Each structure stands twice: as structure tokens, then as C-alpha cells.
């Protein structure tokens, strides 16, 4: 892949191409995690810098560039909200907050042009969606989710697997 | 097999894709995926599903934000890039020491003598000599960095010039191509208009026994007297020869013009001389530029209106 090669060669011009290709997807997910546009922009900036400097650690054999940059960005965003919540304290508080905020965000910031999202969420039942969102946007492990939602770990795993199955069927 | 199914259902692949595993656990998943195609397939499916879910949330940032983010990234490059920046403050801190200007060239013995004459200065003199050595090194290093940076700039500038000139070339090439395409398109449009015009009669010119495969068509407008010729297939011409179109009016041949190369090969339709009146058209092979009267032995195609 040409872009990967150029980034590996430290070609600065490639970063503009990278931005145009991936920024919308990265920003969308970051915004979904941190909620505030201003914070999301900061995180996107950090992500760009991090992707540039740690590009050598991207192994194309282990997955697509999209997956890797999305994980870098997502982790930065999750670190961001965790560090803030850290100062606030409580472990239970943030999850309730964030899932409430997520439910709110899903209703109010929904954009009709995002057919893809609409299509996907329509196929997931609310339980599945809650779990996928907590795992993917909240950065929780399955056992953390189980603990927080007071569900058996097996149920969380089953739901997560079912949800991901639904999503991958849509992709195919 | 059963074992792998159990492994897949354990949820570890989802956690891998979600990025919540430790480095050791990740390495273990990668190892298993490398050995077990079923696990690898499952992992790809999970990753793709999550990628699509992520992509579905895409929000296009404003163009102002695009500028800011790219600028910030560039600024970060300059910050972490060259080591020149930290060297400069050190230089500045050293320079105010007045001895520095003279001290560097003095041998150590001279310093010692000066110290004897000057009693209390001994203690201060020695570090000055040491710092002079460092200063010299710093000056040399700065000059080296400056030279390197100058060379870098020069190389970058050259590359920029090359890029600019190849961009110019590409743009010129592109606009030339666009112009030719536009011209060709206009011509086709005109040709199409002729073919669609009811006033034009189509005259089929068939090959003579000399060239039975030959075929051409003339479009004749009796009102405007316009004549167009459209070659389907004419034999290749000998060196120095050209096809000439004739109109036959009451048995008399009238010169209707020479066929261009592109016309003769069938690449385009050509407008010929206006013809006042005709009952038939024919094409002969003549010397380049044509003849006032046709060479009947070279008659290639002919047809009646």
C-alpha cells in the first residue's frame, strides 16, 4: 500500500493524504468517546502526532492501517476521559454518566445522513448495542462491563459475540 | 477442533480486537491465529465488524479544524526534530563571560602565568579555560549544524523546484489534453448533427471489381449543396497518392475535393467541396493534390444517389 510505504519512509506529505482519508472516521469515534468537540480536536491532534512518531510499530501483517490508527485514536480518547474521571474519583459514577450520556448522544446528535450507522444500530438490539458501545467507546473489558451492569460475565460475552456477529453480517 | 471452538467462544478475540488485552495476551492471540486458520478468520471478521461500526460514526471535521490539526502536527515535528534548539541557549549563557573572547587561543601555561601575576584570579581562570574548550566545540557544532541545515534547505529547495516543474508539466499536459478532447468532441458533435439532419441524403459508394471490399458513404444536401464523405474501408494508398472525390453531373465528373489522411483511414468525416448538382459520386486514386479529370483506371468506389 502506497500510503503505508510513504508513512514508513517519513514522507511528511503523506500526512495530509492520511488526514483526508482517515480524519472523519477517527474524529467521529473520538467525538463519540469524549463528547466535546474541543476535546475531540485535541485528541485528534495528539493522535496524528502519535501515529506519525510511532508508525514504525505498525505491523501491516497484523492488520489494516485503519484498524491500527483507529485503536491508537480510541485509546488516546479513552485515556482522556479516564484521566478526567480519575480526578473526579468514583469508579461507578463515570460509567453511569457515560452510558447515560451515550444514550442521550445517540438520540440528539443522530444525523440522518449516517445511513450506515442507522442501518447498523437498527440491526442491534438495545442490550447488544449498550455492550458494544461500552466495550468499544468506553474502553471497558468484558469483566468490567459485567461488574458494572451486574450481569454474569457469560452473558456479557454472549451478547458481545452476538452483536459483533450482527455487525459482521452487515459488512459482508 | 473442539478446542478451537472453545477458544473462539471464550471472548478473547473480541477483547483482542477491542484492544483491552495486555501485551502478553495479545502476543498469545497472534500466535494462535497464526497456527489456526479458523481463529484467524474469526479475528478478521471481528476486526472488520468493529472497523465498520467505527467508520459508521464518521463525522467530517470542518476545514478550519483540518488546518489547525495539520498545523499542530507540523509544529510538533519542528519541536521534536533537530537538536539545534537546545544548543543555542547554552551558547547564550556562556557568552557573557568576558574572558571567553581571548582565553580560547591561550595555552594552559599562559593561563597559569597570568594567574601568578594576578593572585586571586587563579580559581576563576581554570574553569574559564575549560569552558573555552567547550565553547569552541559548541561553535564548531553550531557551524556544522548550520551547514547541515543549509544543505538540507538546499536539497529541499531543489526538490520543491523539481516538484513544481513537474507539476507545471503535468498541468500543461492536462490542459492540452483537455483542449484536444474538447476539439474532438466539438467535431463529433458537428458530425452527429449532419448525420441526424433530414436534409442530407446518404449515398452508398460500393467497391469496383478492382477493390471489392472498399466502401464509403457520401452525405449530400441538395439545398445547401454541402457534401460530406465518410470512409468505411478504402485500400491503403501507394506512396505519393491521394484519394479524390468526384461528383457525376449528367455524366460529367466534377472535382469534389481531396480526402485527408484521417478521412481515408476512416478516422473522421470530412466536409468536401460544395456540389451544385449530382446524380452519382465516385472516388479515384490520384497524385497528391488531385487532377482536374479523374483517372478512370483507378476508380475505387462509386454509387448513385
Automatic annotation (TrEMBL), chain B:
It is found in: Cell membrane; Membrane. It is a single-pass membrane protein. Keywords: Cell membrane, Membrane, Transmembrane, Transmembrane helix. It comes from Hymenobacter lapidiphilus. Residues 140-295 form the Anti-sigma K factor RskA C-terminal domain. This is Regulator of SigK. GO terms for biological process: regulation of translation. It holds the Pfam family RskA_C. One of its GO terms (molecular function) is sigma factor antagonist activity. It comes from the Bacteria. The chain crosses the membrane at residues 137-157. The keyword Transmembrane helix applies. One of its GO terms (cellular component) is plasma membrane.
Amino acid at each position: 500500500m502506497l500510503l503505508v510505504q510513504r508513512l514508513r519512509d517519513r514522507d511528511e506529505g503523506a500526512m495530509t493524504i492520511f488526514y483526508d482519508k482517515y480524519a472523519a472516521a477517527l474524529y467521529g469515534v473520538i467525538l463519540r468517546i469524549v463528547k466535546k468537540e474541543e476535546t475531540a480536536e485535541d485528541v485528534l491532534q495528539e493522535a496524528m502526532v502519535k501515529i506519525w512518531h510511532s508508525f514504525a510499530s505498525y505491523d501491516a501483517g497484523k492488520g489494516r492501517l485503519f484498524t491500527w490508527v483507529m485503536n491508537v485514536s480510541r485509546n488516546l480518547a479513552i485515556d482522556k476521559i479516564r484521566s478526567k474521571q480519575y480526578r473526579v474519583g468514583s469508579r461507578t459514577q463515570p460509567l453511569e454518566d457515560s452510558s447515560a450520556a451515550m444514550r442521550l448522544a445517540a438520540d440528539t446528535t443522530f444525523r440522518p445522513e449516517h445511513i450506515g450507522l442507522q442501518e447498523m444500530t437498527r440491526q442491534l438490539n438495545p442490550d447488544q448495542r449498550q455492550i458494544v458501545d461500552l466495550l468499544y467507546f468506553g474502553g471497558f473489558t468484558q469483566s468490567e462491563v459485567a461488574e458494572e451492569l451486574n450481569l454474569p460475565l457469560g452473558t456479557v460475552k454472549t451478547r458481545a459475540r452476538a452483536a459483533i456477529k450482527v455487525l459482521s453480517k452487515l459488512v459482508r | 477442533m473442539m478446542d478451537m471452538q472453545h477458544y473462539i467462544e471464550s471472548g478473547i478475540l473480541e477483547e483482542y480486537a477491542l484492544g483491552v488485552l495486555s501485551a502478553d495476551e495479545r502476543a498469545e492471540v497472534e500466535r494462535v491465529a497464526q497456527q489456526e486458520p479458523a481463529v484467524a478468520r474469526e479475528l478478521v471478521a471481528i476486526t472488520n465488524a468493529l472497523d465498520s461500526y467505527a467508520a459508521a460514526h464518521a463525522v467530517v471535521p470542518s476545514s478550519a479544524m483540518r488546518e489547525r490539526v495539520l498545523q499542530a502536527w507540523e509544529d510538533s515535528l519542528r519541536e521534536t526534530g533537530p537538536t539545534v534548539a537546545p544548543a543555542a541557549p547554552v551558547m547564550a549563557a556562556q557568552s557573557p563571560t568576558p574572558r571567553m573572547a581571548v582565553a580560547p587561543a591561550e595555552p594552559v601555561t599562559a593561563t597559569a602565568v597570568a594567574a601568578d601575576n594576578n593572585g586571586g584570579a587563579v580559581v576563576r581562570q581554570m574553569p574559564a579555560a575549560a569552558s573555552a574548550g567547550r565553547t569552541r566545540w559548541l561553535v564548531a557544532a553550531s557551524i556544522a549544524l548550520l551547514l547541515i541545515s543549509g544543505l538540507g534547505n538546499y536539497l529541499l529547495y531543489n526538490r520543491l523546484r523539481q516538484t513544481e516543474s513537474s507539476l507545471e508539466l503535468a498541468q500543461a499536459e492536462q490542459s492540452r489534453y483537455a483542449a484536444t478532447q474538447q476539439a474532438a468532441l466539438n467535431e463529433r458533435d458537428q458530425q452527429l448533427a449532419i448525420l441526424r439532419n433530414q436534409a442530407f441524403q446518404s449515398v452508398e459508394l460500393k467497391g469496383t471489381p478492382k477493390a471489392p471490399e472498399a466502401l464509403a458513404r457520401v452525405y449530400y444536401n441538395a439545398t445547401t449543396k454541402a457534401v460530406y464523405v465518410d470512409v468505411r474501408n478504402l485500400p491503403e494508398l501507394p506512396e505519393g497518392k491521394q484519394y479524390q472525390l468526384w461528383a457525376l453531373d449528367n455524366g460529367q465528373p466534377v472535382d469534389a475535393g481531396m480526402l485527408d489522411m484521417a478521412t481515408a483511414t476512416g478516422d473522421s468525416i470530412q466536409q468536401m467541396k460544395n456540389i451544385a448538382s449530382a446524380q452519382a459520386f465516385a472516388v479515384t486514386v490520384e497524385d497528391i493534390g488531385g487532377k482536374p479529370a479523374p483517372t478512370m483506371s483507378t476508380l475505387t468506389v462509386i454509387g448513385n444517389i
